[in-house]
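Reopening this ticket.

The earlier resolution said the output was attached, but the attachment link was broken on my side. Pasting everything inline this time so it's all in one place.
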Amino acid sequence: MTQPDAARRHFSGDVADTDPTLHDILSREGARQAAQLELMAAENVASKAVLQALGATITNKTVEGLPGHRFHGGASIVDEAETLAIERATKLFGCSYANVQPHSGSQANQAVFVALLKPGDTILSMALSAGGHLSHGAPPHMSGKWFDAVSYGIEEDSGLLDYAELERLALSHEPKLIIAGGSAYPRVIDFAFIRSVADRVGATFLVDMAHFAGLVAGEAHPGPFPHAHVATCTTMKTLRGPHGGLILADDPDLGKKLDAAVFPGAQGSVHLNNVAAKAVCLGEALGPAFKAYAGQVVDNARTLAGTLQERGLGILTGGTDTHLLLVDVKTKGLTGDQAEKALEAADITCNKNAIPGDPASPKAWTGVRLASSSGTTRGLDGEAFALVGNLVADVWDSVGEDGLPDPGVVARVREGVAALCAQYPIYN
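Inline output:
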């Protein structure tokens, strides 16, 4: 018997041949990433090794449950991959428990809710408008629909987390869960203080370090343990891995509840290629080069913030302790939407973001969130980020009353971006 031609083609055909339409899309996206400066806080550039794991044949295997306790046979080898990811995660973050299966940071948070809360329970978290996260109780999200979400904010003058308000709200509402961390807060959070408040009201303390997990791994930011009862994070931002989430803890009994909440509570089968890619990025983060990277990320973000301040732009909280910074573009008479689109015309990508006092409509937001993580991965240093800051300010300074940047300035900045991207290339 011979293998049919269709089967041979199935195992040997490249996407360029089997799906030229998608191949064209993938090729153009790869070219875009290579030719643009990425200042998006939620993005990074994964290593070639991470990409290889994502495309490996482990994707063909289906399993449910945990290593050694699967609901499918033939899992002994893939169990090694997940066990490796777990071991690396616990070593990296200094804890005894990790679940590496969550498909995203939001689903990691959802699993924590499933494990620890009942519908209607009270949670206390940072307001979305103050830099919190959608999955921490925002009204449109499942967490805001299922739980009684109470929000603390920031100090009006400094823009720093309002610890006094957090304490007052905790004592008044006695939440079951207190959450620290968010998507647009650029400063180190006092985990010890929040844990002391949580202990006073009998709450569990969750640190969502989705944005700064890589900085924790690289010892450029304080870690959540021993103060947090549980921590969640994503693996694609400052950890430079695949899209996905982690749940971390230092209590075996809590770990059992969290495992059951992931499966069968919140998810089904494991995305094993993603778990393998997480193992790769966690292994990379354990190396000495990653520590240097994490420190450079913070230095570069501070350089970018300082450069923009010198060019007359407002930086919320006056600076940053992490990879990200929030820019108030009202000082240039712009909306966040105008600022974002003006930069994209010049091959610099970022995202508009709400800042305190902004209306609910994203079109009317007056903030922009910038970050140094992707550029630092490409190799940009402080001198390069000072140049980037001036290129950004040049574009924004050129925006006219019609909301559009000057074409001549855009052309000049694009040349500068092209030179930087050529000097600091990504994949061959």
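Reporter confirms the inline version is readable. The longest strand covers residues 122-126. Residues 294-423 form a domain with the Aspartate Aminotransferase, domain 1 fold (CATH 3.90.1150.10).
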